[in-house]
Design a protein that fits this description.
The chain has about 300 residues and is an alpha/beta fold. It has 2 domains: about 5-30 and about 85-295, von Willebrand factor, type A domain (Rossmann fold, 3-Layer(aba) Sandwich); about 35-80, no CATH class. The protein has helices at about 10-15, 65-70, 105-125, 150-160, 170-180, 195-205, 220-225, 245-270, 285-295, and strands spanning about 35-50, 75-80, 85-90, 125-135, 135-140, 185-190, 210-220, 230-235, 240-245, 275-280. Strands 5-4-3-6-7-10 form a 6-stranded mixed beta sheet, with helices on both faces. Strands 1-2 form a two-stranded antiparallel sheet. Strands 8-9 form a two-stranded antiparallel sheet. Strand 4 (about 125-135) and strand 5 (about 135-140) form a beta hairpin. The longest helix has 25 residues, at about 245-270. The chain is elongated, with a radius of gyration of 22 Å.
């Protein structure tokens, strides 16, 4: 597979993320040896605890220096490393068609993120699947673990169009129902829904033991109103129109946007997840590299 043949995985993006190194906080059940902690114990390099030697254990697993000090046969238990299955959960509702200050729409930016993440995950030996959603889960592609296998999800990204309304809480709940083994869910959305409803879905994923990364994609024109005077605004998903004087709401809008982001970030942190607020004016390559450092 050649990255250059796909709009959302240009060579510059592929080159910048091929060694991204996406890690998870919680142990996962995966497909074999890899980069992530498993709930199972094995013989990897990360020490977990000691247990008494039992017949059948390999003698080379006995900690002989401990035996010399304590006259006890103890075996070092270590966290088995495993590869994971990651699910990219992508919002494709009408509100993602918005573009004002950024060089592309929110959906286009989200597609670049999804493509870069899938490429990085497969490159580090993990598997990635793609779910798209509006009110429910619309596209469900099975996990792929090879660069050749990336063709199918990249083809889907090429054809996506923003349409319909979204229900982010329902999508998170439905994803939890579909994913049985503990894994990683990366949700990419503008999260235009009451934060408490979204938090309910986040808590469900956390309850099931999943790792979660929330990528909150906004256009710079949404975060800070850069126009003045009387304006007629139209909600993309419902078509509802509202005439306002921008100066009357500018400060309140900024406070509400900040509070919404703070609530989402807190809900994600309580679920041991990572939340990142991304602006479409920032190059996608830089946004993805910031994920490695855990900075929002």
């Amino acid at each position: 597979m050649q990255a250059s043949s796909y709009r959302y995985l240009p060579p510059s993006l592929a080159e910048s993320v091929h060694r991204l190194g996406i890690r998870v906080r919680r142990p996962v059940r995966g497909r074999g040896e890899g980069l992530h902690r498993s709930p199972e114990y094995g013989a990897s390099v990360e020490f977990a605890e000691y247990r008494p030697y039992t017949p059948g254990d390999a003698p080379n697993r006995i900690d002989w220096p401990v035996y010399a000090r304590s006259d006890r046969y103890l075996v070092r238990r270590s966290q088995e490393e495993t590869s994971l299955n990651a699910t990219i959960l992508l919002d494709t509702s009408e509100s993602l068609a918005y573009r004002a200050a950024g060089p592309c729409t929110k959906l286009e930016y989200a597609c670049f993120l999804a493509a870069g993440l899938m490429y990085a995950l497969v490159g580090q030996g993990d598997a990635a699947s793609l779910f798209t959603f509006t009110v429910g889960l619309d596209t469900l592609l099975p996990p792929i673990g090879t660069l050749t296998g990336l063709r199918a999800p990249l083809d889907v990204l090429e054809r996506l169009r923003a349409s319909g309304r979204s229900d982010i809480e329902a999508a998170l709940m439905a994803t939890a129902e579909r994913i049985r083994a503990r894994s990683l869910v990366i949700c990419i959305s503008d999260f235009l829904q009451p934060a408490e409803r979204i938090a309910h879905g986040v808590r469900r994923l956390a309850h099931d033991g999943h790792n979660l990364i929330m990528l909150h994609v906004l256009d710079g024109g949404e975060r800070h109103l850069d126009f003045s005077g009387v304006a007629e605004l139209r909600e993309l998903e419902t078509g509802r129109r509202l005439t306002i004087d921008v100066e009357d709401i500018r400060e309140a809008h900024a406070r509400a946007a900040a509070a919404h982001s703070e609530t989402l970030g807190r809900a994600c942190a309580e679920a041991l997840g990572d939340y990142h607020l991304l602006d479409t004016r920032e190059p996608v390559e830089l946004a993805l590299l910031r994920l490695q450092g855990g900075k929002s």
